[in-house]
Amino acid sequence: MKRKDSKHKKGYVRKRLKESWQWYVLLLPALIQLIIFSYGPMYGVQIAFKDFRASKGIWGSPWVGLDHFVRFIQYPNFWKLLKNTLSITTLSLATFPCAIIFALLLNEVKNLRFKKSVQMITYMPHFLSEVVVCSLVILFLDRTSGPVNNLIAALGGERTAFMGIPKAFPSIYVFSGLWQSIGWSSILYISALSSISMEEVEAARIDGASRLQVLWHINIPGILPTIVITFLLRVGNLMSLGYTKILLLQNDLNLDVSTTISTYTYEIGMLQGQYSYSSAIGLFNNIINICVMLIANQISKKVSQVSLF
Amino acid sequence: MMKRKKSETIHKKSRWSNYSRSDKIFLIAVYAILISLTLICLYPLYFTVIASVSDAHSVYRGEVNLFPKGFTMAAYELVFQNKSIWRGYGNTLFYTIAGTAYNMFLTLPAAYALSKKRMYGRGVLTVLFLITMYFGGGLIPSYILYTNLNLINTRWVLIIPAGLSVYNMIVTRIYFQNNIPETLYEAARIDGASEFSIFFKIVLQLSGPIIAVIALYYAVEHWSSYFSAMVYIRDTKLQPLQVVLRNILILNESAYQDALQASDATAETIENAAKQAYMALTMKFSLVFIASAPMLAIYPFVQKFFVKGIMIGSLKG
């Protein structure tokens, strides 16, 4: 069938197009949306290599080559920004196993009602908005009225204004994120665990394996592909630390550690109006991100035969 | 399923005594960890509720921990007098409904089209969509684009640019591919149905679960986002709830200003002036509650749809 088609390629293409046109019509609105709002900004990213003037537009502004990139790398605080970004992302990567452990533990529970309640409650924080979560963080860590300090005081400790301690910022950021997402990110692993064959587990149990041994030798290997895939996605985001939540938790006291590459992009671009420079920093960050992800993907392909693409 | 349940109940009787010592310790640890984790997830929400109905001064002094103290709805009364909160609520409702409708208009037909293996150029078109998941123009190029399109400082900027989530579209596509039998299409085609009528009459009818999942994903996204509004909208009349919340909760803008102005500073309010400084705190908790209640109220009913969405998304398509 196929061979015959390729012989009459022109007729084949025409036939396929004729068959497909209604699907193209259905796809068209999304395609237009994609081209304008996803590829449009990609076209605009050329201002990273230009000296953007609003009066001249994107196309008419003069080229300056890599000037903005060089300027960023030579910026005295460049290393500090990089360090701040990485200290938050690596800490957040370190909490990656938490959701897996949670799923593995939950998998041991056979009482359905208990299991369902735990899931229901731990998924809940996922539905709070960033603004609400950050407000809760600030309210809870408050020195005089926050429950965290109430607990510390009750245990005989000293009340502390955590939001004012720069060193605490990465932990506050990461652990509030963990609180919000641990239940939700465990769903993937729970569903992967449910596909592990019961027979294998039963057989191991009959052979005298303890529950912990089953967990270690059957359950974890069983969900390893899922773990690798989600880990790759996380590594790919190592540098793409969102700025929206950081901006909410930022205050004058922690500015020194809470200024990251992404918040700097925002600050330079939106608050100071240096469009080209800000775009260059954003592009720089995006490219590093993609490189990190590609490298991680290649390594994983070699080591575990699991990869994103 | 039924069978497994039965065998489980039979096992149950002699279960605990059958466990070895190490298994018992392990299980106790499992339950202990899970229960404490659940409490950690629950407590902030619980505290928000009790603090919002407690006497402001007690909350301020850190005396409220497990039970409300000096029950009062004063914080809610004051919050409800704040006009910007109501306006924000109304705006958010509009953005959520209109935005989600637009999202669905783009996502569903595209997902259906891309689920068609026989569509010419499907591979290339799919890649065109996937690229945008990893690479984007960034903040400033987007801002310039919206400026050129005259979207800045209009309601549209919160609806149109966020029209399509490629991830959601892919999830929908996978659902269409796996859940609608090919024979159904063939039967419809033999009956002479066009692709459009197949899409509207068959595909949409059979895809209730995925439509619910995707609409909810989009709706939560619209409900929770603050950043776009903060950056692209200057007019306070157009601001959604999350921006109002940010002003009051994070930037400490006074939440009871409107209330003070509205009540014309009667003798009573002046008397309570000192108290109102504390009120700011309990009002924050009541605001957190008011802002989250709608989502948390519908959440138990839609939870299973959300979970389903994640599982569909995890299948490689």
Explain what this protein looks like in three dimensions.
The complex is a heterodimer of chains A (309) and B (317). Chain A contains 16 helices and no strands. The model of chain A has no long low-confidence stretch (mean pLDDT 88). The radius of gyration of chain A is 26 Å and the shape is globular. By secondary structure, chain A is mainly α. Chain A has two domains: 2-48, no CATH class; 67-304, MetI-like fold, CATH 1.10.3720. Chain A has helices at 2-7, 9-44, 57-60, 67-74, 78-94, 96-108, 112-123, 130-140, 147-154, 169-193, 198-206, 211-236, 244-249, 255-258, 261-271, 275-304. In chain A, α6 packs antiparallel against α12 (211-236) and α12 runs antiparallel to α16 (275-304). With 317 residues, chain B is mainly α. Among the domains of chain B are: 16-76, no CATH class; 83-242, MetI-like (MetI-like fold), CATH 1.10.3720.10. Chain B is built from 16 helices and no strands. The chains are: A mainly alpha (309), B mainly alpha (317).
Supply Rg of chain B.
26 Å
CATH class of the domain at 83-242 in chain B: Mainly Alpha
Give the beta-strand count of chain A. Answer: 0
Kindly report how far apart the N and C termini of chain A lie: 30 Å
Strand content of chain B: under 5%
Counted by DSSP, the helix tally of chain B is 16
Mean pLDDT of chain A: 88
Q: Could you give the count of β-strands of chain B?
A: 0
- The overall number of domains of chain A is 2
SSE string of chain A, helix = H, strand = E?
HHHHHHHHHHHHHHHH
Q: Portion of residues in helices of chain B?
A: over 70%
CATH-wise, what's the superfamily of the domain at 83-242 in chain B?
Answer: MetI-like
N- and C-termini, Cα separation of chain B: 27 Å
The mean pLDDT of chain B is 84
